Amino acid sequence: MGVFLGNPSARVRDELWERSLKATKGEGSVLQMWSDKNPQGFSYRQFGVSERNFGDFEGMALIRVSRHGRTSIESADTIEE
Hints:
- The protein contains 1 helix and 5 strands.
- By secondary structure, it is an alpha+beta fold.
- The strands form 2 sheets. The protein has a 3-stranded antiparallel β-sheet with strand order 1-2-5, with helices on one face.
- The longest helix is centred in the first third of the chain and has 15 residues, at about 10-25.
């Protein structure tokens, strides 16, 4: 598990995302969040298997908790405005 906290450019953020995906090697999960000019004040993307996942509910990012263990996010979900 790695945590990076900062304010990188979009290009650096994308590079960090690609490196993180490669580091999972198909196991684990990756969640990337950043400040953004939208009603919630942030955007995100996620990949992998986790008990908690963001979901889009009428334009708002909400956390979904799986009742039956882990759920898989097969592709990167992103909320952007």
